[in-house]
Amino acid sequence: MPLLLPNPSSPLPSLLRHRLCSSSSSYAAAVGGFLLRSGHRPDPPQLHAEDSRVVLGCGLVTLDYVATVDAYPRPDDKIRTGELQISGGGNAGNALTAAARLGLNTRVISKVANDETGATVLSELSEAGIDASHVIISDGGNTTFVYIIIDKQTKTRTCILTPGDPPMVPSDLPMSSLSAALQDVSLLYLDAYSPEMELAVAQQGWLAHQMKIPILVDAEQERTKEELEGLLSLASYIVCSGNFPKNWTSIPSLPCALLEILLQYPRAKFVIATLGEKGCMMLQRSDAGDDSVVDAADIEVVADSLKLELHKDDTLPTCISSKTMRLSARGLCAILGRLLIGTAEVIPVSELVDTTGCGDAFIGAVLHALSTEMPPEKMLPFASQVAGIKCRAIGARAGLPWRSDQRLAKYL
């Protein structure tokens, strides 16, 4: 059929509806809109006494229309889709889904409109095990939706995002509701999509009642310095794409740029740059009070040495770390810490399906690793393995609970 993507404001064709939920009755309830029209929200998942701590995410949730095509269309082309799948998406939605599928209790602050797309997004969040009771529902406007075209030939994806309206702002969430959302939270995740709102959440989590909840910030390439500065100044952990450090610091060397980021933001315990099929690089800050460390080295020299030691023939993710030392670079101060390099899983071309949401899945795994006090040497291969599982499925939230996947057995 021609590549004519659905109109999210119109009722969905019955053939597509069936893909969204595990049963026709649950789908009818969601798409019929009663969740929104009646003012009813999904009930938060019941927590067990032994795992009452919660990971709270604030940011973007969407509905994704994922069309797979043999090749990306040229101007004025009419082509056929090989498959069309509809699923929840958005940075916060994807990362929290990954964390929930790995066994964490998750909660989200986001915003949808009082439309059928919003109803579907709420239903999908609830089915994923995410507490969506703090999602804001606007009376008018539209919920964010994304058209994603997956090119089977080049293994690339093109995203066309229609932003939600009205946007999420701090006045949407009264202080009493924000305090309730922060109850029992042990880790806060911010995707920087709504920086003004997320800064308000971060400040409340850091200051109120001396909770000082640790904060992981996903430093998105699309955000401006003005939008990100406040969030990064409060960040305990920073995860970003490989191009972000260079663009943020104007330093072409990735190890030196990571060093500069930790110098700029002294609260941050580590920064991770994801590098796609090349893996990732992490700079971890060590305790400032450790005076026993006397070794010093140029961080670029350390990075080059680690790359030589990597087992590049391994198909499964691996990680190699420097020892703790005083790392410096020309023109930059030194920090006490260590550099880690992780490889990505080697996925055969025949198994590579959709890279949409792989970075979010990586972050979801990092959230799990932090919550379970997993050491970095184990965390980086684990997160890469989770991202690899996502690469093998269509749709950002596709697949069964990842905790049951045998490829993760040695980590969990």
From TrEMBL:
It comes from the Eukaryota. One of its GO terms (molecular function) is kinase activity. InterPro entries: Ketohexokinase-related, PfkB_dom, Ribo/fructo_kinase, Ribokinase-like. SUPFAM superfamilies: Ribokinase-like (SSF53613). Gene3D superfamilies: 3.40.1190.20. Keywords: Kinase, Transferase. Residues 59-288, 347-402 form the Carbohydrate kinase PfkB domain. Signal peptide: none annotated. This is Carbohydrate kinase PfkB domain-containing protein. It comes from Urochloa decumbens.
